[in-house]
Amino acid sequence: MTDTTAPAASSASAAPSASTAMPSVASAVPLHRNWRFQTLWIGSTAALTGVFATDIAYPLVILAITGSPAVAGLFGFVQAAATVLCGLPAGQAVDRFDRRTVQVTAEAVRVLATASVALSFALGAVTPVQLMVVGALVGAAQPFVGAARMLTVRSVVAPEQLTAALTQDEIRGSVAELAGPPLGGLLYGLSRLLPFGFSAVAFALSLLSALVIRTDRGVHADRGDRADRGDAAGSTAPRGDRRAEPDGGLFAGILALWRDRTLRAVVVLLFFLNAAGAPLGLAAVFRLTREGAPSWSVGLALTGSAVGGLAGAGLVRTLHRRFRPGVLLLAVVGSEVLLVLLLGLVTGPWAVALVLFGTMLGVPSISVLLDVLIFRQVPDEVRGRTLTSVMTMMGLGVPLGTGGLGLLLQYAGGTGALMVLAAVLACGTAWAAMQPGLRSARWPAA
């Protein structure tokens, strides 16, 4: 990622008015010199690296303790289900309360929960039940951290820099995914407590970054500006009145989203993509472990996804310029069907890494596409709920896919399980391709 502020797509560079009430200083500061954004980026990158380090450590520990891929799948289901269930409350929280406080509180939960696992390893008292509880706590904290951070980014970055900032965020994910799995595998090989200790420290760095960042705007970023402009959609309540709620309350985001048939199709298709894509790491760990691959090589294989994400971040601008959003989304998800099938056929860490590389090439373009189509189109007072509504509805596929894959691995083996995942994703892609609103969708105008 360069430090330029060029948008990923020419039509995506102009955000709607809901995103434009920014501090004047933000417009004058280049993104690479915006210390608040870069501090948030560094803290979040550290935390995400810790997440990926333990993502490989948890299944390795559970397989070592129980020998059951079904239990490993159950862990993934519990963690993902906690994330999904807390999605809508997280949106409500970041819309009603101070976002910095929300992020700090949720990050503290992740620090304490993960540190407890490292401590239990030091005492020789780790149990699958404890791991399930910790997984649930870490999963529940995730939407609070993610929503608060994303909205904070919008308050410290100028509108014309949003696409560049979000693309840098995609690089953040790829860097973390590149470093986390091999580091987690290496640390696990040295001592089982080390990946969890590292993750706790990484979460603490993210907590520290949230503590030092103060935004130039209030709880509701542009509610006051919208009211001052006489915008009919703006709240007429006093600026500091947290009790004032737009219609829909907790479900305001879902209601706003579901009224648009194109956005409905986008979210449903990404639900299928998550159901098939989220458990691919578990499938890779299972297959490579059965082949007798050492833990460090398992972690190395999982970095294929990260390299693919980094390469994909460089394609965002080109893909957004050349393809309409619906066509791009269908092409990316359709290619995933073939890649999931291929993952069920290849053997060895290098082959697995190459396939995982392919599965991530289009993901950065989809992530920025979501921001352009959805998150910039809604007023700030429901933006948190809309954001978490999208993530919740998409995220429903994660626990279903992860839990289902664990059972499939138990009874159908690695190849059979991946064939089923590919079939599920193919069905979702076929349904979405028949939705005219999705095929004809265009990038929003200024």
UniProtKB/TrEMBL annotation:
Pfam families: MFS_1. Residues 222-231 have a biased composition (Basic and acidic residues). Keywords: Cell membrane, Membrane, Transmembrane, Transmembrane helix. It is found in: Cell membrane. SUPFAM superfamilies: MFS general substrate transporter. It comes from the Bacteria. Its main location: membrane. Signal peptide: none annotated. It is a multi-pass membrane protein. The chain crosses the membrane at residues 40-65, 71-90, 111-141, 193-213, 265-286, 298-316, 328-346, 352-375, 387-409, 415-434. This is MFS transporter. It comes from Streptacidiphilus cavernicola.
